[in-house]
Hints:
Strand content: 15-25%
Oligomer: single chain
Radius of gyration: 22 Å
Largest sheet: 9 strands, mixed
Order of helices and strands: EEEEEEEEEEEEEEEEEE
Number of helices: 0
Helix content: under 10%
Number of strands: 18
Mean pLDDT: 90
Distance between the termini: 30 Å
Amino acid sequence: xxxxxxxxxxxxxxxxxxxxxxxxxxxxxxxxxxxxxxxxxxxxxxxxxxxxxxxxxxxxxxxxxxxxxxxxxxxxxxxxxxxxxxxxxxxxxxxxxxxxxxxxxxxxxxxxxxxxxxxxxxxxxxxxxxxxxxxxxxxxxxxxxxxxxxxxxxxxxxxxxxxxxxxxxxxxxxxxxxxxxxxxxxxxxxxxxxxxxxxxxxxxxxxxxxxxxxxxxxxxxxxxxxxxxxxxxxxxxxxxxxxxxxxxxxxxxxxxxxxxxxxxxxxxxxxxxxxxxxxxxxxxxxxxxxxxxxxxxxxxxxxxxxxxxxxxxxxxxxxxxxxxxxxxxxxxxxxxxxxxxxxxxxxxxxxxxxxxxxxxxxxxxxxxxxxxxxxxxxxxxxxxxx
Length: 386
């Protein structure tokens, strides 16, 4: 490319050279590609509630100009000359591919940029290349044992997820924990992994409790300064598992946190800011005579508190908690005989809870300098931060 573009600070940058205005080599895309048109890139300020990008189109765009959208094989790149997400505003990202925000100037995040899973729906680019990162499905109850199905395993990504719980009296093999996936560099860019579905318990059950979705994959690459203020949030949390619709159904496992890759000539994350890719909680299992399992919570956006697992009801196994900074995801508990009807013949039993999803990954690449005073969950890996 050639010509000049605004630098986001009142000046101009000459768009020539190996990195097309970038003073460093950005990850996962080539800014010199003819696919990108930085000279005609637009300045965007989002300040009108929740703005969206679903992988194809933008919504509630606050009267701002449309960015260039470059749909690549493995990701979608949005091109800006500058980007501001105002305090109280949210840019919500979804779709099947990871999202890269390429800013040929500077970017300020005073609000929220969110690529998180929502319940069973994965975030932008979540649940890709997830074998063996996805949590294992719980085992169905068999008519011969009638001991309750097992819970699904929690998704893994930054670390391993957690296994689901067994049905009462040891019934049904647990849903396995999802394995570690990806690398610290986040090259290639990919999101987190879904939790496993719970096993089916009822004789008429056709669907099981769904696992939570994997957190999405978001990269923000900025020529100048990437500034996340004290009110800013950049999030790619995993979703909470869902309970089944029949008695003795196992709970779904929680989804893992996703991927957050932040890079700029200078990267500043102020005190009070949060950058988080926490795991979702697993759902609890249903007991033998009713459908009373509870959903697992989605991973937290602005906290290093664990997402809670679904609460146990009358013997159904509790869902495991999601992972966060310094705290591993926890296993779903086994279903338990709880007296009365549940214990007749020592065969009827409650189902196991789903395991919690693991944390995702956070990477910070600074071209020249980084000031990282905010909070990160999990802990960030840095490169080039002097």
